[in-house]
Write a structure and sequence with these properties.
Blueprint: E1 2-16, E2 21-32, E3 41-45, E4 49-57, E5 67-75, E6 81-93, E7 97-105, H1 108-111, E8 114-116, E9 119-122, E10 127-129, E11 142-148, H2 149-163, E12 176-187, E13 189-206, H3 211-238, H4 253-274, H5 284-309, E14 315-319, E15 343-347, E16 352-361, E17 365-372, E18 375-377, E19 380-382, E20 387-398, E21 408-416, E22 422-425, E23 430-436, E24 442-446, E25 469-471, E26 476-484, E27 492-502, E28 506-517, E29 528-531, E30 536-537, E31 551-552, H6 554-566, H7 581-591, E32 598-604, H8 611-629, E33 636-639, H9 646-650, H10 653-661, E34 665-670, H11 674-678, E35 684-687, H12 693-701, E36 705-708, H13 719-725, H14 728-732, E37 737-740, E38 744-745, E39 767-768, E40 771-773, E41 776-780, H15 781-808, H16 814-821, H17 829-842, E42 872-877, E43 883-888
Parallel strand pairs: 15-28, 29-37, 30-31, 32-33, 33-34, 34-35, 35-36, 36-37
Antiparallel strand pairs: 1-2, 2-13, 3-6, 4-5, 5-13, 6-12, 7-11, 7-13, 8-12, 9-10, 9-12, 14-16, 16-26, 17-25, 17-27, 18-19, 18-27, 20-21, 20-26, 21-41, 22-23, 23-24, 27-28, 38-39, 40-41, 42-43
Helix pairs in contact: 4-5, 6-7, 8-10, 13-15, 15-17
């Protein structure tokens, strides 16, 4: 028996503005009970088989009086895995909320080889996908396989958007199921007997009559956007500087290398355009490679000019955007270097702002010194101590992703003041860290082997001031400056300079610094920023394990809490025990972290079911509530089981209800599907990976909040990805907060990226925004990029608060609100921030006559960045802002 119903009694109006047609959402149900027919059709196989029986059978059933019985003998031979596929054709769009379920009856042997899956289609792209279906886990009984297809298909649509269709989102094309494949894979000869019954779909779908037109409209809009992007790249190409004339010039080896790179780019760029021009879509790797070459070209031209015209020059100094992604190796050239470096920015009092320089040597340069002045202006003086300078240390890391074992890669990451703190051997491909004995003797310990042993008696100390350093011939180094504008600084223009000098060269460069301190203060971020924090205070045992993400002294704990606050993370979790929580909260209060909520991961709610277990949980929660209240804290948040799924997740419900009855809240990490199982009880859902506004709407509909994590996890040496993904991307998807993993989390030794814990199921890299040293932390470029994302949101929060205040006074702020609503999270965040500043300043005048955003005053950094030079370009792409580009000879 088959039933299929499209109920017209419930219509959800959706307006497709580009077409002006109403897209009606309909309730939908479909049930196939296999009472009289076998709807499956043969698809494909690479071996012979015998169908002993394939049709309705009264042997056993769930619904009606029959089920579909499959009795098949497969005739494989040898060790080759053979496949045998049938499919049940069926098409319905998944643009609504659609649940699927089916009952399967198999023995354990059969379940190893048989799966019933889903065939997804994404019109009009022509792309299809068959995801791996869940496995049967209950044998010789009816097993209910279920899935929310409308959620599951988004994972795969998102995959295609990120990996196959540059510039798109999963809303730029359709999503539909076109069948249910029956998949058998096995080795050798086997006879399998199993049953299928009550295949059912239920939920809502877009009106099938208007769905095809909607798909075409979405795709047409995307085509227009894509054409503009390609046209813009052609314009960039036509405006590239000419390759210098080298006729009759004897080129140095480096000059020839730069010229070869330019000539190769001159060939490769048209080839890449050929893959884009007139195409309906192309992979992100295509335009990434193009952008890398377009940004690298001006840098190579500049380097070639230096080699031709300034052969007596030993050290060149360039500007470099600090939070745009560049993977530097110490010998390569990044894209879009600024040939006349300057630091020119608009900032607020109390804000931290980074700027960066790139140094390239032509010969051995010794004793390079960096000095800077105070900044003076009509409002007074910003002392030179407000500028903190670092060397961005290049060292070996275990690949690009957070999963280790992918090879030793040179990349810049650490912000240090003593270049000798880390010694990098590019022949042996090792990192060594400098430690100091109690008698003051210094020596190095290898931190890139299978194990690391650092004696507890030694210290790891960076310098308090930036020390002079040297550069061998044709080596490069990035310098990082952080300006901390004092919170009492009056508005106005302030100027100063940074000077570089070296032995035998005198002054190499003087870089002008000009900042405008804006006439407003930044409001608190409307997005709540937290991080998983694993440190706990144990003064008695700290000396036994001084360099770890876990054991901390009171002093080290305070240093790290201050560092978290300085980077905008006001709600780090606590890993402190009940008996030590007083020390924790005392330090948090000294640092000035807010007290309106506390996230506790010391204990999990678990899955208590009995009355005694639930009573015990309530008692624990009550004790914690009373304890933290003594230090002024409210709104205790208790942690659920980390990333729980299935029965375990459902079994948490009773415990979560008990937490609520005790007057506390629940937070837990998980997945999109969490809402269906526990959304009514989960006060703060920490959901991975990519933010989805639909998810935010679900949690907000029941008065709960949604945070984001794992987009990506902490540990990728890329400031841009953390700025973008934990900044404007969260705002545009209406997320309430961040709780990424983790401030520090060592797998093995925290300073060794090549010794994953043997007990871990996966060889994870250490997840570090910072690295612990004796009485301090070493920051990273990704941690600084994250702070810029927080500040982006603080600027946007300030603007939104002004809009809301003026709106409450009856002012017309619709044009400014439209600007906020139209922010593109994939755009250059620095340009977006400058436009936000313009809007904030404009609101002090006539509201409603705000001019369009302009970028004429933006001279902070070049807009494009990345890359290296060499013979062979290799590219790896990931989430928004994530690019790896490197070259090998």
């Amino acid at each position: 028996m088959t039933t299929q119903t499209l109920k017209g009694s419930l219509w959800l109006a959706v307006i497709l503005l580009s077409l002006g047609i109403n897209l009606r959402a309909q309730n939908y149900t479909y049930t196939q009970s296999f009472e009289s027919t076998n709807p499956f059709k043969f698809w494909t196989s690479n071996a012979t088989y015998t169908l002993n029986y394939f049709g309705p059978s009264s042997d056993r059933y769930v619904d009606g009086t029959k089920s579909l019985k499959v009795d098949i003998t497969i005739n494989g031979s040898g060790t080759k895995e053979c496949f045998y596929y049938w499919t049940m054709p069926f098409t319905i769009n998944l643009q609504g909320k659609m649940d699927f379920s089916v009952y399967l009856y198999m023995d354990s042997e059969t379940a190893k080889y048989v799966k019933l899956g889903y065939n997804y289609d994404f019109p009009p792209t022509g792309l299809t996908r068959i995801p791996g279906a869940s496995s049967v886990t209950s044998y010789n009984t009816w097993f209910k396989q279920s899935s929310r297809l409308s959620d599951d298909i988004i994972y795969h649509a998102d995959y295609f958007a990120k990996n196959k269709i540059f510039g798109s989102t999963y809303d730029d094309f359709g999503r539909q199921v076109t069948g249910f494949p029956l998949m058998i894979k096995a080795i050798g000869q086997k006879r399998l007997v199993f049953y299928i019954d009550k295949l059912q779909l239920s939920g809502t779908v877009m009106d099938q009559a208007t769905y095809p037109a909607a798909c075409n409209s979405w795709w047409s809009d995307f085509q227009l956007r894509l054409a503009d992007i390609v046209s813009d790249r052609h314009t960039q190409y036509s405006n590239l500087p000419a390759i210098p004339n080298t006729s009759g010039i004897t080129l140095t080896t480096k000059a020839q290398e730069y010229l070869n790179g330019l000539n190769k780019a001159k060939t490769d760029i048209p080839n890449l355009f050929a893959l884009m021009d007139g195409k309906q879509y192309f992979a992100p790797t295509v335009i990434d490679s193009l952008d890398e070459l377009l940004s690298l070209w001006p840098s190579l031209v500049e380097m070639l000019k230096i080699e031709i015209n300034n052969q007596t020059s030993k050290l060149a100094v360039f500007g470099l955007n600090p939070t745009e992604y560049n993977r530097l190796t110490g010998s390569n050239v990044p894209g879009n270097i600024e040939t006349s470096p300057k630091f020119n920015a608009r900032v607020c009092a109390g804000e931290f702002e980074p700027f960066s320089l790139f140094l390239q040597s032509r010969a051995q340069v010794n004793n390079i010194k960096v000095q800077w002045t105070s900044l003076t202006g009509s409002g007074g003086t910003i002392p030179s101590t407000a500028i903190n300078a670092f060397i961005v240390k290049v060292w070996y890391q275990n690949g690009y992703d957070i999963n280790g074992r992918s090879g030793k890669w040179l990349t810049q990451e650490l912000l240090i003041k003593n270049d000798d703190l880390l010694k990098v051997d590019e022949t042996a491909k090792t990192n060594s860290i400098q430690v100091t004995k109690t008698d003051g003797t210094k020596y190095y310990i290898n931190i890139s082997g299978s194990t690391t042993s650092i004696p507890t008696s030694v210290k790891i100390k960076d310098s308090d001031v930036l020390l002079p350093f040297s550069l061998p011939a044709y080596r490069s180094k990035q310098l990082w400056f952080t300006l901390a504008v004092p919170s009492n600084t009056p508005a106005g223009i302030y100027t100063g300079s940074v000077t570089l000098s070296a032995d035998g060269l005198g002054t190499v460069a003087t870089i002008p610094v000009q900042i405008e301190v804006l006439p407003f203060k930044l409001d608190k971020s409307k997005i709540s920023y937290g991080l998983y924090y694993h440190g706990y205070i144990d003064d008695a045992n700290y000396s036994k394990t001084p360099f770890t993400s876990f054991v901390k002294s009171s002093n080290q704990y305070k240093i790290e809490m201050q560092d978290l606050k300085d980077h905008g993370v006001l709600y780090p979790t606590t890993f402190q025990s009940y008996y030590g929580i007083g020390k924790d909260l005392t330090i948090r209060n000294q640092v000035g972290l807010p007290k309106d909520k506390l996230f506790v991961t010391t204990f999990e709610t678990g899955t208590p079911q009995s009355s005694s277990a639930l009573s015990s949980l309530k008692s624990t929660v009550t004790n914690w509530k009373n304890k933290i209240a003594q230090y002024g804290y409210s709104n205790l948040h208790v942690y659920g089981i980390d990333e729980a799924t299935g029965t375990t997740l459902l079994n948490e419900r009773a415990g979560w209800q008990a937490v609520h009855e005790a007057g506390a809240k629940v937070f837990a990490s998980g997945y999109y599907q969490h809402y269906d199982a526990v959304g009514d009880l989960l006060d703060v859902a920490i959901i991975q990976p990519t933010p989805r506004k639909e998810q935010a709407d679900l949690y907000h509909s029941v008065g709960h909040q949604i945070y984001n994590y794992s987009n990506p996890m902490v540990g990728i040496e890329d400031p841009e990805i953390y700025r973008k993904n934990y900044g404007f991307l969260l705002w545009t998807n209406n997320y309430d907060g961040v709780m990424n993993y983790a401030y520090q989390r060592n797998f093995g030794h925290i300073w060794n990226d090549f010794d994953p814990e043997a007990t871990q199921p996966h060889p994870y890299r250490d997840h570090n925004f910072t690295y612990p040293i004796t009485d301090g932390v070493i920051s990273t470029i990704e941690w600084e990029g994250f702070r810029e994302g927080v500040d982006d949101i603080r600027y946007l929060s300030t603007l939104q608060n002004k809009i809301d205040s003026l709106k409450a006074l009856g002012k017309d702020v619709s044009s400014v609100q439209a600007f906020v609503n139209s922010i593109d999270p994939s755009a250059n965040p620095e340009i977006t921030r400058q436009a936000i500043i313009d809007k904030i300043l404009s609101l002090s005048g006539q509201v409603g006559t705000v001019p369009p955003p302009t970028t004429d005053n933006i001279v902070l950094f070049a807009e494009q960045g990345t890359l290296t030079t060499g013979a062979t370009l290799k590219t790896q792409t990931g989430s928004i802002g994530s690019k790896v580009a490197y070259c090998t000879s």
